[in-house]
Write a structure and sequence with these properties.
The protein has about 290 residues and is an alpha+beta fold. It has a domain at about 5-170: Yope Regulator, Chain: A (2-Layer Sandwich). The protein has 6 helices and 8 strands; from the N terminus they run βαββββαβββαααα. The protein has helices at about 40-50, 105-115, 145-170, 210-215, 220-230, 275-285, and strands spanning about 35, 55, 65-70, 75-85, 95-100, 120-125, 130-135, 140. A hairpin with a 5-residue loop joins strand 2 and strand 3 (about 65-70). The longest helix has 27 residues, at about 145-170. It starts with about 35 loop residues before the first strand and ends in a 6-residue tail after the last helix.
């Protein structure tokens, strides 16, 4: 994908959480000035009028590489503005704004961005996301309108980055516990070896099901077979019996609620009072976490 500017300079570190951009000392003195073309000085003025810092001019083209600091943050967003349709001279009839995110992006994400925001074009190449906004001057645009187009492109970019950051911070699904590490119990249930797992630990919500509660650790073969085949998830792990007050006929695991749980409020017995909690759970005197 050839864009005519140095792509290696566009590592994005934007972490803003909204679409609002603001500058501390915006220069609006030329907002009503109508231009039919842009030169190097004009493009630099647009960036600096937003109180952004121009890092340098673009190599072999009319435009600038610039950045600004996010409000209330030390992070920066780097972008470029490049003159287009310059016809070999210093005056250009169009302007393109570039923002590039390096990361694990997909073509599907780029297509979703294009569906959500018509003001910007998104393209994915080798995991990087290229965002562009193209402005044609036609019979003339005011400097104020050009500034607004730049701000809109940057605001959308900030929103996309915020969404990507939030998604990366979401807790991942816990790793599947190996079957060898699960106590499946025995085949003492009424319907053991019928090809269906009756143990409530492998159901997503087992609170109201007396049948499944009663079959915790009582349908070993069926549950093990289906678990090893990847058809079951262990939703309820009682843990082991290593707690200080294990085997005292009261469940000390404070993940549970109900009359069958002890008065202990600390986390020190989470997954460490298995036998007591299994008995109480089967009896329906505690509710699953």
């Amino acid at each position: 994908m050839k864009m005519g500017i140095d792509m290696k300079l566009f590592t994005i570190s934007a972490l803003a959480l909204g679409l609002a951009l603001s500058a501390t000392a915006e220069d609006t003195s030329r907002d009503n000035h109508l231009v039919t073309s842009l030169n190097q000085a004009d493009i630099q003025f647009v960036s600096e009028s937003l109180d952004h810092t121009v890092r340098r001019n673009l190599d072999d083209s009319v435009g600038v590489l610039a950045y600004y600091q996010q409000d209330g943050s030390s992070t920066e967003l780097v972008y470029a503005m490049q003159g287009k349709a310059c016809q070999g001279g210093p005056d250009c009839l169009g302007l393109e704004i570039f923002i590039i995110f390096e990361g694990a992006f997909t073509a599907e994400q780029a297509n979703d961005i294009n569906r959500r925001w018509s003001a910007i074009k998104a393209t994915e190449t080798d995991g990087s996301l290229y965002l562009t906004r193209y402005l044609i001057l036609d019979d003339g645009q005011t400097i104020g309108n050009i500034r607004t187009n730049v701000l809109n492109a940057l605001a959308i970019s900030e929103q996309i980055q915020a969404e990507q950051t939030a998604a990366a911070e979401e807790p991942s699904e816990p790793a599947q516990i190996a079957a060898a590490d699960i106590d499946f119990g025995e085949d003492a249930g009424d319907y053991a070896n019928d090809g269906a797992c009756d143990d409530a630990r492998f159901e997503s919500d087992g609170d109201d099901w007396t049948y499944q509660r009663n079959h915790v650790l009582r349908d070993a073969t069926d549950c093990r077979t289906l678990y090893e085949a990847g058809e079951l998830t262990l939703y309820l792990d009682f843990g082991d019996n290593s707690g200080e007050y294990a085997n005292d006929n009261t469940c000390d695991d404070n993940r549970f609620t109900g009359e069958g749980r002890s008065i202990l409020q600390t986390d020190s017995h989470v997954k460490r009072d298995a036998v007591d909690c299994i008995v109480a759970y089967r009896a329906g005197t505690i509710n699953r976490p």
